[in-house]
Amino acid sequence: MSEGVDVTLRTPSHTPALLGGHPAFSDGLRFVRPATPPVEDVVARLRPSYDDGVLTNGPLVRQFEEQAAMRLGTAHAVAVSSCTSGLMLVLQALELKGRVLVPSFTFSASAHAIVWNGLSPVFAECDPTSFQLDLDDTNRRLGDVSAIMATHVFGAPCPAEQLEVLAAKHHIPVIFDAAHGFGSTRNGRPVGGFGSAEIFSLSPTKVLVAGEGGIVTTNDDALAQAIRLGRDYGNPGDYNTRFAGLNARMSEIHAAIALMSLEDLDDHLATRRALARRYDTVADQLPGVNPQAVAPTDRSTYKDYTVRIDEETFGLDRDQVVAGLRAEGIETRCYFSPPVHRQQTYSHLGGDHLPVTDHTAARVVSLPIYRSLSLDSIERVGDRLLALHHHADEVRAALQ
Ligand SMILES: *Cc1c(COP(=O)(O)O)cnc(C)c1O
Predict the structure, then answer these.
(1) What pLDDT is stored for residue 8 in this prediction?
(2) I need a labelling partner for 112 at 20 to 30 A (CA). Which of 68, 86, 97, 350 fits?
(3) Quick check: CB of 292 below 6 Å from ligand 1?
(4) Whether pTM exceeds 0.85
(5) Are 87 and 246 in contact (CB under 8 A)?
(6) Ligand 1, atom 6: nearest CA belongs to which residue?
């Protein structure tokens, strides 16, 4: 893929589709498309287990765990059925009481895992430019909290070392919802080895995919053992269960897909990073379109390419931009809006004053990014954003 190529957005001669112009993508531009390994390769990989009648938790799962641990440089990688079940099992294994601090600007599953353990979430603010858990606000809310769970938002690492220091000061564990982070690095260190454990997702919208699945990585032998037990009902093999575990095993079929997806990960990440650089170049030319800030010493997987729309400079607010892009055939998602503390499940808790999170969630939009997306498509998305900006007054009037 060509990199660092300067692109200049064409002067917006075309009329936005919302105002009657021809849509940029008449067949539609999808938001996400999983990078599925060739099916013959998956079948070939699966065949020995399948023919042997081993359908779950077999040699392919072991291989996947070994390769994931090697890649991430952790002592253990435990495959589970999803990131959500991994989060639930890790919180259970930590034997926590009371309250767990979590950002509100994350996916609902982070908070759900807390609630499933009979614990209560304490929501904390995000940073308005990196969208990551805010350190000062976390510090302020740590009072009687028994653990911190932070998310590596959109594949960019959160301030993991600083959170480790903060947690150590309060003698509490910190874990990371690394659903987006397989392949991210923080100051040169792979995400996976931070905190007590990190939990990855392999569901179809993520970068590394298995169909459904998750991985728990940790350097703590006892914790790894507890997760291995917990994914199998808490049964060590004698049917005398030690605690109320789950069925959170990974099947051999999922492991076969995950192994093929992992083999291909470096190429996949290189492509995503080239696409993200092209989006960066495009965003530079668009007033009021601000990409997520990623520290120059960090590397994101770009699970999502997310921008903040500033209405004052762009001329339209986020929802108007989404409507304008939809008319062009461009599918977007507003991750994470509404933020978790505003969702029906949690709003009854009340009392959460999270103005930065509310402000951020109302302004973000994630743009299409996936391996098979062309650089040209990104330029066309940029062209249409520029056209919307130039026709902002008319677009606003049309949407009234
Ligand atoms: C997708 C996602 C999850 C849930 O992952 P599953 O594998 O679907 O359970 C959890 N946290 C975040 C931040 C996610 O994006």
Answers:
(1) 74
(2) 68
(3) no
(4) yes
(5) no
(6) 83
